[in-house]
Amino acid sequence: MSERRDRGRGQRGGQRDQGGHRGPRQKSRTAPSARSRQGDVPRTTALRVLRAVSHEGAYANLELPKALRRARLSGRDAGFATELTYGTLRMQGLYDAIIAEAAQRPVSKLDGGVLDVLRMGAHQVLGMRVPEHAAADQSVALARSVAGQGAAGLVNAVMRRIGERSRDAWLEAVVPAEPVVERLSVAQSHPVWVVKALRQALIGHGAATPESADDVLADLLAAHNVPADVSLVARPGLATIDELLAAGAQPGRWSPFAAELESGAPGDLEAIRDGRAAVQDEGSQLLALALAAAPVAPRSDGAPERWLDLCAGPGGKAGLLAALALQQGADLVANELSEHRTELVRQSLRPAVAAAADAGREIVVRTGDGREVGVDEPEGYDRGLVDAPCTGLGALRRRPEARWRRQPGDLAALGPLQRDLLAAGIDATRPGGVVAYATCSPHLSETTFVVRDVVKKRDDVEVLDARELLAGAAVADLGALGDGPHAQLWPHVHGTDGMFLSLLRKKA
């Protein structure tokens, strides 16, 4: 898997010497007539996305592509705006500590727009090796546009102070030596509660011991700060790996249907535009493959299997499941609560729906409350996927804003929903059928605790060893997947999102 830690660096010049110190400092131009009156297009585009994320609750992975198209950015400029956006979001916690020290005031006292500008400026100087004078000049121009001349003066002063130290010197200045959790929180830019939760998860899933947990935790947090490769899936029967490779992708690591796109936009590939292939993390692919491969007792009536995706939006796993269902002669129902997300599922499954009609099979996309399916259709399905809403702490490489947006209190709201959905999925599965419970989070409260609480209230399910089926779905040795019977993938071990999988069989 390609390393992307330095992506975006060096694009706009500026180098340190071998000791990490900067060369002779270039002062910002002081004459008002010589200063930039507004930020350049890539920086302005990045700021608009950051403003949408921080003030409107937008998601960067959805907002940035639209912003790039509106600004007509491509090539180097698009790459610069992308790194500036995601890099700023990833390292927000560290940059806030640096900005607070440089400004001699808490970041909560700064105007929101000014803070976004300063975070971007800090990332340019400390994360992208942009020359201090260029970063300061552009930051002042952006501050002037969002908050006026007074803010521009503040930003100029703070950017000058940030540029006076190297990244290593700032780390030494703002990162506490102890305790370990707080040190890692600042140095690796994660909220303290997330750091604590991930440490517990590593131990709880058997990925670390109490003695090794701090070192393993540091590796995991660091992996979250490395941009994820773009993983593609060739939906079987609709597209082939060879088609993706011919379009410039590279073979994937784990899934037989995966490829990696190291450069370019996925939407430029014909198979992606047609919906025959899609962007999908390899861990997500493996979960769908494991469910499709799980042994199921034959139906007494000899009818084709019926599969259920209980929480199908936005349609990634549903798209692969639909293709696999067609290959196995099964029907699929993709259920989603939100009408908007149902439409996304419908778009994702359009090629599979057409192929199903030609093959005499049925793929249905519908809107409904997944918690009611077990009552409305008891024992109606042979295989079911419960990909429950979760905190998304396993996908922080792709959605870095989630680490700042989520709060511990979210678990209190999500927990009952996750348990209700899993119970409904079991109720909707016939005896001899299999249910997969999955989350894109390793948090124990969203994974093993949910399965434990649901299973202990029932006598009609048994827990399968998900590790065997997950490993069997992969084309290479996955290595450690936890203590079992559940399986947990990790970004720092497998290079995938932190996907959790539990497989339950309904007793015959």
Write the layout of secondary structure elements.
Elements: H1 41-56, H2 60-71, H3 75-90, H4 92-103, H5 112-127, H6 132-147, H7 149-162, H8 167-174, H9 180-187, H10 192-204, H11 213-224, E1 230-234, H12 241-246, E2 250-251, E3 258-261, H13 270-274, E4 277-279, H14 282-293, E5 306-309, H15 316-327, E6 331-336, H16 339-359, E7 363-367, H17 373-376, E8 381-387, H18 402-405, H19 410-427, E9 429-439, H20 448-455, E10 461-463, H21 466-473, E11 487-488, H22 491-494, E12 500-506
Parallel strand pairs: 5-6, 5-8, 6-7, 8-9
Antiparallel strand pairs: 1-3, 1-4, 2-3, 9-12, 10-12, 11-12
Helix pairs in contact: 1-2, 1-3, 1-5, 3-5, 4-5, 4-7, 4-8, 5-6, 5-7, 6-7, 9-10, 10-11, 14-15, 14-21, 15-16, 19-20
| Average of per-residue pLDDT values | 92
Give me the secondary-structure category.
alpha/beta
Report the top-level CATH class of the largest domain: Alpha Beta
Approximate shape: globular
Number of strands: 12
Look up the CATH topology of the largest domain: Rossmann fold
CATH homologous superfamily (4th level) name of the largest domain: Vaccinia Virus protein VP39
Q: Helix amount, in percent? A: 40-55%
β-sheet strand percentage: 5-15%
Q: What is the count of distinct domains? A: 3
Which regions are unreliable across 5 or more consecutive residues at pLDDT < 50?
1-35
Number of discrete helical segments: 22
Architecture per CATH nomenclature, i.e. the level-2 architecture of the largest domain:
3-Layer(aba) Sandwich
Termini distance?
A: 43 Å
What is the C-alpha radius of gyration, as a whole number of Å?
A: 24 Å
